[in-house]
Amino acid sequence: MKRLKVLALLIVFVVMGSIFSIQTNAKTSKVKDLPVQDLFTGFEGTTVIKNLKTDKVYIYNQNRSKERFTPESTFKVPNALIGLETKAVTDEYEVKRWDGIVREFDGWNTDHSLASAMRQSAIWFYQDMARDIGIEQMQLNLNKINYGNNNISGGIDTFWLNSSLKISALEQTGFIEKLVKENLSFKQQNMKTVKRIIINEEYDDYTIHGKTGTRLSDLELGWYVGYVETKKDTWVFATNINSSGSKAKEITLKCLMRLNIIKNHES
């Protein structure tokens, strides 16, 4: 009788192991290499593109996709979400007055709202908001998101700028996926607001939501993260490269075209 019980347990373990192996292999089989080496000629970088309906993932440079870098201005996306959640700003229209300090981009040297500062990537607005959020609330909410290494030790208004906070391209797509599905532990209205203010391009057949980021100290790190809504699917993406955010965006859009997710509306 004991032998039969032992045999039965062994059979269960074998079956469960087989099921786990099948599930693991199925997940692995959904990751495809993205053959876009020509788009990265002269650059080091990675692109991750995921279909949220099928879970199919396309990756160029899988090793780099797991490597963490500072998020630079792509952190404006979670920063905006935390700002709304903690009431550091009431909505996307609340205006902060420009402090009169002339900065390197003309678009920064004016009053801004949460939405306009996102469009212009006005760092001063989001630094000021981070100070209003404060270290305790910033850390608490960042931990809720589980954003990269969650490290804000570099200073409340600088930790995301070539400093302590780091995140990989794969982790960026994970965060964006949760934002798209509104699966984060934040108010639904706040998630909807953030998704709305990162709209980059709108066409009849698709809408692109995204945010660039550039390490301004040396222009040797650029990001473009976000998602595309088509009539059939939603795709999240993250690209980083040893160049500017504008270059990362250019490459991302070309990758999306190659996968026939979007069209070239400029031609």
TrEMBL record:
It comes from Lederbergia citrea. One of its GO terms (biological process) is response to antibiotic. The keyword Lyase does not apply. It comes from the Bacteria. The lineage of its organism: Bacteria, Bacillati, Bacillota, Bacilli, Bacillales. InterPro entries: Beta-lactam/transpept-like, Beta-lactam_class-D_AS, PCN-bd_Tpept. This is Beta-lactamase. Its EC number is 3.5.2.6. Keywords: Antibiotic resistance, Hydrolase, Signal.
